[in-house]
Amino acid sequence: MKAINKILIPTDFSELSLVAVEYVRTHAISTDAKIILFHAIPDMFMFPPYSNVDFNSDTMLSESEEKAKRELHHIASDRFRNNHNILAIVRRGEPWQEIIKIAQDEAVDLIIMGTHGRTGFAHVLMGSVAERVVRHANVPVLILKPKEMQNSSIDFHALAQTPHGGL
Amino acid sequence: MLKTTKLLVPIDLSEYSLEAVKYARELVSGKETQIYLLHVISVESQCALPVVDQGSESVLREIEEVSLAQLETLNRKKICNARNIAYVIRRGLIFREIVKFAKDEKIDLIVMATHGRTGIRRALIGSVAEKVITHSAVPVLAVKPQLLREALLNENEIEVQLHSSQGENNNNKAAKENNSQNHSLELV
User: Fold this and answer.
1) How much is the pLDDT for B29?
2) B141 touches chain A (CB under 8 A)
3) How many domains are there within chain B?
4) Which domain holds residue B170?
5) Predicted TM-score (pTM) of this structure
6) Per-residue burial over A123-156, b = 16 or more CB atoms within 10 Å of its CB, e = otherwise
7) Which of A154, A155, A161, A162 should we substitute to test contact with B (largest number of B Cβ atoms within 10 Å)?
């Protein structure tokens, strides 16, 4: 039997990322698995043209970190009550890279996260954190879709129109 | 361990897809779990007119039979014979049949190898896995081949090493990084 001892749930606090929290709450059998709630704060002032400007970004980022930590704690107490041991971690950096790193550092067994499954131009524009995590992570990744998509029917006719299924 | 009762493992008869089957079997507990092994025979041309002639139809039938026999052999030899495993053969565009099957059969979870017959050299994720992840409303658990996992681990370690050696040259930067990375705290 595969023991899943550590589960990583990256969150950007969106509704979608909380789908993963909900999934773990309802689907994890062993309650003694450790859950890591993780948030990465992108350091947006690292790059030109802002790199030369003194935004006092460190103060700003520390504030964001504090806020993120509070939010993670809130999720932990709100959704998991007391039946799990939960670790809340906030780091700075590009979200997908930090997710890969924390998964390795903490030796997690599974990453669970949501994605919209966007395709086409919007996909290219926004990128997808989940997609990059699936590509680069060296642990299994469980990908969840938003609730509304789970219930709606998929338009196979529309899929058939695009020769490669929209990818 | 996850609570799931209906599991779908798409299988292209490659070693990698067998790893996913093994993973799936270890992942779920309980005898009431049903695992479907789905093999899709790739029929790419989706012609609007039913122009399939008798010849190619019989060829496809034969391929289906051979595939089913292969699935059964693989199960017996490599996955240990288990009663809760069902084999399904479909024809069509591979990713579409997988997504469709999962939806029609009300599958709880798709456990899928990120790579299949094309191997792991070309990309970090195979095209079929990518499309299934994009289009499936059912949760997808993407499992990387062991070989690729190890390669990625090494690659990431090298990257970390490079990172830290740069940091030695620039103490300021390293200090800042350390500072930012140690903000974890334990709850309960």
Assistant:
1) 63
2) yes
3) 2
4) 150-181
5) 0.77
6) beeeebbbbbbbbbbbbbbbbbbbeeeeeeebee
7) A154
